[in-house]
Amino acid sequence: MTKFLEILDDKSELVKRALKISVNCIQEAIAKRGKCSIALAGGSTPKPLYEKLAAQNLDWNNIYIFWGDERYVPADHPDSNEKMAREAWLNQCPIPAQNIFPMPTGADPATDAATYEQTLQDFFGSQDNVGFDLMFLGMGDDGHTASLFPQTAALDVGDRLVAVGQKQEDSRITLTLPTINASHNIIFLVAGANKQDALQQVFHEDCDPKDYPSKFIQPKEGRLWWLLDAAAGEKLSPDGAIYAMKSR
Ligand code: 6PG
To answer: What is the fold, at CATH topology level, of the domain defined by 2-222?
Structure first.
C-alpha cells in the first residue's frame, strides 16, 4: 500500500486536488484495463468534486459507477446518495445509463445487500476479482466511513462484499472492509474542523479501529490518499510514518 496525506488550504483546493488525482486514476485504469469502475461516497463533501468530474472530457462509455454505501431510502429521497450523485454528476455527463449501478433499497436491507453482492460478482466476474479502480470515501466525525459505523456488526463481515450497516436504528447498505480494501485507488475526502478529533484518533497508533472504522482502510496493494482541508487536518502533525505534503 502507498499512503499519502495531503493537507490543502481549504475545501476548494481539496476538491481541485481530488479532481486531478481522480482523472489520473480513471485514465490510468482505462489505459491498463480498458475500463474504470468507481465506487462513490455519499454525504456532502464529495458533491463539488462530482460536479467538476461531470465537466471532464472522459471516456464515459468505459466508466462504470457503483456506490460505497446507501441510506435505506428511495432513490428520490433527499437523503439518497444516489440522488445526490445523479444530480451533481451523472445526469450532467454522457455516461450510458447501463453503466450506472445504484444500490437497491426497495425490498429489505438484507435482500438488497445480497442483490448488490450479485451485481458486483456479475460485473467483476467473481468474488475474488472484485477490486474497484477508484473508491471515494468520506469520514464522519465519529470516524465512520461508508456505512461502517463504530462497534457495529458490519465491521466483522469478512466473507461478503456487501453488508447491512447500522447507524443507530437506521439500516444502510454498505460495501464491506475487504471490498473497500481491495480497491486499486482510494481517495478519502475530509473537510471541516468537526473532523479533527476523529482524524487524530485514526492517525494515532493506539486507536482501536472498531471505535474509528476509517482506520481499517488499508488497501492491500492499492494507493490511499487522505485529502484533508486545513480545518480538518489542524491537529495532525505529519510524521515519518506518513508522507505528508502541505499544499503549496
Ligand atoms: C454517507 C456516507 C458517509 C459520509 C460521511 C461524511 O452515506 O453519509 O457515505 O460515510 O461519507 O458521513 O459525510 P460528509 O461528507 O457529509 O461529512
So the answer is: Rossmann fold (3.40.50)
In terms of pTM, does the model score above 0.90? yes
Helix (H/G/I), strand (E/B), else coil: 172 = strand
> Strand, coil or helix: what is 143?
coil
Q: Which of 147, 152, 190, 226 to mutate to test the pocket of ligand 1 (most atoms within 8 A of CB)?
A: 147
Give the domain ranges of the chain: 2-222
Query: Which of these, 137, 125, 129, 160, lies nearest to 69 by C-alpha position?
Result: 137
Q: Give the confidence band of 239 by pLDDT, cuts at 50, 70, 90.
A: low
Query: Which residues have C-beta within 8 Å of that of residue 55, sequence separation ≥ 6?
Result: 92, 93
Grouping H, G, I as helix, E, B as strand and the rest as coil, residue 201 is helix
Residue bearing the CA closest to ligand 1, atom 15: 45
